[in-house]
Amino acid sequence: MEALIINKTDDTPAIHFDQASGKFELSGKSLPEDVSTFYAPVFSWISEYAKSPNPESVFVFKMVYFNTASSKIILDILLRLEEIHNAGKSISIQWAFDSDDEDMKEAGEEYSEIVELAFKFVEI
CB–CB of 119/93 below 8 Å? Predict the structure, then answer.
């Protein structure tokens, strides 16, 4: 399966999803003008990945900031990962946040209460 690599910009996060290396990371700021268009390749990749996922996957979120529209998208990503987990594969989340960013920590905690995935919180 081909890796999905999108470089970050001032308004969009870096995305590096690579099944072969086992690296699954979304990092940076997310405030694209059109979230649906920007994240469409992510959802396509996850749908393809769901057909034959690795036995264990850790998805890393290192978000600095995201707007309201992006928060819904992040939840949708987590819900799709939960579906893979519910199908018998090990999916966990590593939620990284700056030590002085209480809002980002709380956002991760809220997501962890919505989806049934193992969350590990990493202060950086």
Answer: yes
Alpha carbon 12 to its chain centroid, in Å, reads 13
Q: What are 52-76's pLDDT values in tens digits?
A: 999 999 999 999 999 999 999 999 9
What CA–CA distance (Å, rounded) separates 28 from 8? 7
Token pair belonging to 20 = 């072969």
pLDDT score at 51: 95
DSSP one-letter string for 1-49: ---EEE---SSS-EEEEETTTTEEEEEEEE--S-HHHHHHHHHHHHHHH
Q: What kind and span of H or E run contains 67?
A: none
Beta bridge partners of 111: none
108 pLDDT band, cuts 50/70/90, is very high
